[in-house]
Amino acid sequence: MSSQARADLNQLPVKTQFWRYVLPSVAGMLVVSLDVLIDGIFVGRYVGAHALAAINLVYPIVMLQIGLGTMVSMGAATRISILQGAGQTAAARANLGQYADYYCPAGYCSTRYWYQPVGADTGATECR
């Protein structure tokens, strides 16, 4: 972090800092929402109503998985950053390895063994 950025964090009012960090996050969320909206328009118009209904059924489950993944990833990144800031590089690398060793297989298993039953329950004729 540059000395100017540190000075800004120490001297700027909290309200200014809040808006400086919130606005890019909100803009990113709006872009993702627009992407979903545009996908829905194209799927509904060119693929059909059944495809749009399928997307609407599965979308909350996908968002739940994305939310859980984001939550765990941010927690791991915070922990690793704290360890690196404390000069404990070996412990930070060990935590990164533990995260990758556990959550990559967990993501695969949740996709493989969770989506198939959901697809079958919602009437999918072929779910691979």
Give the C-alpha Rg. Answer: 21 Å
Helix content: over 70%
Strand tally: 0
Distance between the termini: 46 Å
Tell me the series of helices and strands, N- to C-terminal: HHHH
Structure annotation, total helices: 4
- Classify the beta-strand content into a percent band: under 5%
Which whole number gives the mean pLDDT?
81
**Total domain modules:** 2
The parts where pLDDT drops under 50 for at least 5 residues are none
Describe the structure in your own words:
This protein is mainly alpha-helical and 128 residues long. It folds into two domains: 1-47; 49-128. It is 88% helix and 0% strand. The chain has helices at residues 3-11, 14-47, 49-85, 89-121. Helix 2 packs antiparallel against helix 3. The chain starts with a helix and ends in a 7-residue tail after the last helix. The mean pLDDT is 81.
Descriptive labels:
4 helices; single chain; mainly alpha
Secondary-structure map:
Blueprint (H helix, E strand, L loop, with lengths): L2 H9 L2 H34 L1 H37 L3 H33 L7
In short:
This protein is mostly helical and 128 residues long. It has helices at residues 3-11, 14-47, 49-85, 89-121.
